[in-house]
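Fill in residues.
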């Protein structure tokens, strides 16, 4: 423990002034008897429990930092409600958020002149837009890879599609003035590294200008018509649908317009990258043989019934769920009840807007009592389908878009 947090203490083991300031900010209040803290003692902190506002059926994969997924059957709503949206934090929640004084700064090598807006100015100066946007963690599905890869073992529930309201990043960038050499944007948020060391960056990712300038790329202050919940990035976040949700920066205070590929935390090394060439499962190629994940692959969920359902024979079963395909749209959703031997087309609806998930429904009839699996398989508008069981293995366990499968027993 001493070693990991040693940067917080001075040589005699007292909390440094800067560490105390960090803690005070984090707690949102003064530590009254700070001068009485024993050497090398780190206050426990009265952390806000993000699970207090969540549906009881969500599954905590990690609480330091919080990583929480939503079982598929709880993703049945057309638009994911706040209490059912997955949580993926890389650091500690910033707890003393003040919407009144919050600002967004646009800076970087490729702006004509850096500019800062208050939240109120953003709301007044630019036209607001509302879009349903699918956010999926690139690590969603990691638990399905064999051999096992390290990281949070997400099954199917690191995804959701909420309705976000805010202003277009492209409108803000036009107001600031971007130079011709702009290549990428990078975000900065107010969360803290788990070590409490304020000099350690948590996550600072971004996207190329072509994605940053899309109509649906929002600087959002509302989710499903209400202020964004703390755990989802209050009071302001970047929301970029269709790409790894790691590019949708929470607790957003700064966007840098870069003249090169953004090199913030978790943009370098192998984070959020896939091998350029297929690798043998278990092999880990050198860093220069990886590429940054951009649009997420085609995928779908069966949200009704819940896996393990016991049904009485004879009646047809109505199934439903959602399908999405990164920057693309989904053109077909098919269902199999015989382990992928034959497929039946589902009724697939168009998306409410670009980058929102699409809803599907289907009715199946089981020939006789017994055990079945229902498999769902989506195909995108470029003709690419989900792999049935496991896609190309990769060392970080990203982008597992294998068909979602549920078990049903007909009695
Ligand atoms: N500032 C900040 N932004 C962040 C993260 C974070 O840890 N800190 N996590 C990212 C990752 S990896 C994901 S998958 C999404 C999760 O968004 P959610 O928790 O609102 O579902 O937020 C992204 N934005
Ligand atoms: Mo993520």
């Amino acid at each position: 423990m001493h070693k990991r947090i040693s940067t917080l203490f001075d040589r005699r083991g007292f909390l440094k002034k800067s560490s105390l300031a960090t803690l005070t900010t984090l707690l949102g209040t003064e530590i009254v008897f700070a001068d009485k803290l024993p050497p090398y003692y780190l206050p426990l902190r009265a952390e806000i429990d993000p699970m207090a506002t969540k549906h009881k059926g969500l599954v905590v994969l990690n609480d330091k930092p919080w990583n929480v997924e939503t079982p598929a059957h709880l993703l049945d709503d057309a638009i994911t409600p706040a209490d059912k949206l997955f949580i993926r934090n890389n650091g500690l929640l910033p707890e003393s958020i003040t919407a009144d004084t919050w600002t967004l700064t646009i800076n970087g090598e490729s702006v004509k002149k850096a500019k800062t807006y208050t939240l109120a100015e953003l709301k007044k100066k630019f036209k607001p837009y509302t879009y349903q946007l699918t956010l999926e963690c690139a690590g969603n599905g990691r638990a399905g890879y064999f051999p096992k890869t390290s990281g949070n073992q997400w099954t199917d529930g690191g995804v959701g599609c909420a309705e976000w309201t805010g202003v277009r990043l492209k409108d803000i960038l036009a107001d600031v003035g971007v130079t011709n050499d702009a290549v990428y944007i990078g975000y900065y948020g107010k969360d803290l590294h788990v070590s409490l060391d304020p000099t350690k960056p948590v996550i600072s990712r971004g996207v190329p200008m072509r994605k940053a300038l899309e109509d649906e790329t929002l600087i959002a202050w509302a989710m499903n018509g209400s202020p964004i919940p703390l755990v989802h990035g209050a009071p302001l976040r970047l929301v970029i649908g269709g790409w790894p949700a790691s590019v949708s920066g929470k607790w957003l205070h700064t966007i840098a317009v870069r003249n090169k590929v953004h090199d913030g935390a978790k943009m370098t090394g192998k984070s959020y990258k896939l091998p350029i060439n297929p690798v043998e499962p278990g092999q880990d190629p050198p860093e220069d043989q990886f590429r940054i994940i951009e649009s997420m692959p085609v995928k779908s969920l069966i949200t009704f019934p819940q896996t393990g359902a016991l049904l009485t024979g004879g009646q047809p079963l109505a199934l439903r769920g959602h399908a999405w395909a990164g920057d693309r749209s989904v053109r077909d959703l098919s269902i199999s009840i015989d382990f992928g031997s034959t497929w039946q087309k589902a009724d697939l609806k168009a998306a409410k807007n670009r980058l929102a998930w699409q809803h599907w429904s289907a009715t199946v009839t089981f020939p006789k009592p017994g055990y079945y699996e229902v498999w769902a398989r989506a195909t995108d508008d470029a003709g690419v389908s989900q792999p049935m069981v496991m896609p190309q293995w990769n060392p970080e366990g990203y982008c597992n878009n294998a068909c979602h499968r549920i078990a049903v027993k007909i009695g």
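Residues 88, 137-139, 244-246 surround molybdenum atom (ligand 2) (CB under 6 Å).
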